[in-house]
Amino acid sequence: MTSSRPRRTELSSRADIDRLVRVFYERAMVDPLLAPVFEVLAIVGLDEHLVVVGDFWEQILFRTTRYQGAFIPVHRALHGKYDLTPERFERWRVLWHESVDELFTGVDASRAKSKADTMVVALRRATTGA
Ligand code: HEM
Q: H/E element holding 97?
């Protein structure tokens, strides 16, 4: 039996991270709960943003030092404008897990999910206090 789903591969390179981030953003940007927040990317520029987010994940998963941003203040500012509710954080988490599971397997795919879970909790506390 062949599956119509492409075979999942081990998450192991920057190219894999870029693919994952792009798939995740394709979903987040049309998600009814998240889209109103991600609309800010029309101003910031999606392509530049995806490079920054790729740098962030490359640092977390493969211990590079490319990411130079400050992601907590960025989300605090977003929360001031758009209200990053616990429901929005949970939707973000679910879409991230779905995107990872659809594309990748392996230790680093699992780490991409567990690290995201930890950061969702930290970021939610840092922004909403909840
Ligand atoms: C409610 C959940 C979330 C929403 C709606 C959201 C939305 C956004 C948006 C719209 C930006 C661009 C802001 C700008 O450039 O002005 C951004 C930046 C970013 N987000 Fe999130 N985000 C969420 C949660 C998370 C989580 C849990 C992580 C990490 C696991 C994350 C990682 C990042 C990173 C690394 C950036 C780039 C920050 C920088 O410019 O240095 N986000 N987010």
A: helix 86-103
Domain boundary assignment for the chain: 12-128
Q: How far is Cα 64 from Cα 67, in angstroms, rounded to an integer?
A: 8
| Ligand 1 atom having least distance to the Cα of 67 | 41
Nearest-angstrom CA–CA distance, 56 and 64: 9
Mean pLDDT of all residues in 24-40 = 95
Q: Which residue has the tokens 């029309």?
A: 42
Model confidence pLDDT, tens digit, residues 67-89 = 999 999 999 999 999 999 999 99
Please give the CATH superfamily to which domain 12-128 belongs. Globins (1.10.490.10)
Burial group, residue 22, by CB count within 10 angstroms (0-12, 13-18, 19+) = middle
> Which mutation among 75, 99, 113 tests ligand 1's pocket best, with the greatest number of atoms within 8 A of CB?
75
Residue 54 tokens read as 């790729």
Atom number in ligand 1 closest to CA 93: 27
- Rounded to an integer, what distance in angstroms lies between the CA atom of residue 62 and that of residue 5? 27
Q: CA-CA distance, 94 to 92, in Å (whole number)? A: 6
